[in-house]
């Protein structure tokens, strides 16, 4: 973590603990170094910092490209190694930036659903994350957040002091599908992208809160 990232990490971790009694479960499942894709359900704008502050390593976030044009905000996002994406959250430039982060040994948080839920329930996965997973060799760690919709859902005006948590699953293996994708037809390739996305969401759905929290210093 660089100093700017660490300051943000410490601020959000402390604020979440004090205001929302945040907990993090099984963070040791995330590699401490090297490329990794954290695939998380999306219930609130609180989600990225919650997932990132559970780890003692830097993680890149996606941020709307227009935000980088503002001097102060842009400076912070660049120091956080955030990835600029277009309005739809994807595009060729966004994918290249994501792949560059992974090839450089970084970690990144992606949301298979593509957008925040409006009712607190898990949504259908979009194929975009499948494309990223197949084109990379990075391990994929499923993550599920709890309570963030109740604390600060899409239509909320201010955050509520509701309990929140993040649980990290075991890394998923997509070696077989990555190998198949190298030689299959374009039609099958599209199926693989969606298959990967669906498998990730199914694994996220199986993650449940546990009683013992991971302890950090």
Count of alpha/pi helices: 8
CATH class: Alpha Beta
Number of strands: 7
What overall geometry do the principal axes of the alpha carbons give?
A: globular
**CA-CA gap between termini:** 16 Å
Chain oligomer state:
single chain
- Name the average pLDDT: 91
Look at the helices and sheets and give the structural class.
alpha/beta
* CATH topology term: Glycerol-3-phosphate (1)-acyltransferase
Please mark out the parts with pLDDT under 50 across 5 or more consecutive residues, or reply none.
212-217
Q: Walk across the major sheet and give the strand order.
A: 1-7-6-2-5
Question: What share of residues is helical?
Answer: 25-40%
- Rounded to an integer, what's the Rg over CA atoms? 17 Å
CATH H-level homologous superfamily name: Glycerol-3-phosphate (1)-acyltransferase
CATH architecture: 3-Layer(aba) Sandwich
Structural write-up:
With 217 residues, the protein is of the alpha/beta class. It has one domain: Glycerol-3-phosphate (1)-acyltransferase (3-Layer(aba) Sandwich), CATH 3.40.1130. Helices cover 40% and strands 13% of the residues. The chain has a five-stranded mixed beta sheet. The chain is globular. The two termini are 16 Å apart. The model is unreliable at 212-217 (pLDDT under 50).
